[in-house]
TrEMBL record:
<dbReference type="InterPro" id="IPR035093">
    <property type="entry name" value="RelE/ParE_toxin_dom_sf"/>
</dbReference>
<protein>
    <recommendedName>
        <fullName>Cytotoxic translational repressor of toxin-antitoxin stability system</fullName>
    </recommendedName>
</protein>
Length: 93
């Protein structure tokens, strides 16, 4: 079974969120955890591969969570908008 691990970069990006965004993030992380257990994604979750070892899912129309897969672990890397995700991908390919 896949595991989830939180990186310091993710924790730093969470600190920048509003309380409402943090609530939506918590709900989305719960959905993602259920996805790992059941392999079923609810409609609108938008989990996708963005390159060979990195994935993202949508929190809302603006925010995304980026993670890196290594072995049986998904490392939560970043929560941010589209531009922040693009910047991360440019710098850490």
């Amino acid at each position: 079974m896949k595991k989830i691990s939180i990186l310091p970069s993710f924790e730093r990006s969470v600190k920048k969120l509003t309380s409402q965004e943090k609530e939506r993030l918590a709900k989305s992380l719960e959905i993602f955890n259920n996805f790992l257990i059941t392999s079923q994604t609810p409609y609108g979750f938008r989990f996708k591969k963005i390159n060979h070892d990195k994935y993202e899912f949508r929190i809302d129309i603006r925010l995304r969570v980026v993670m890196k897969e290594e072995g049986d672990t998904f490392y939560l890397v970043l929560v941010g908008d589209h531009d922040e995700v693009k910047r991360y991908l440019r710098n850490f390919r």
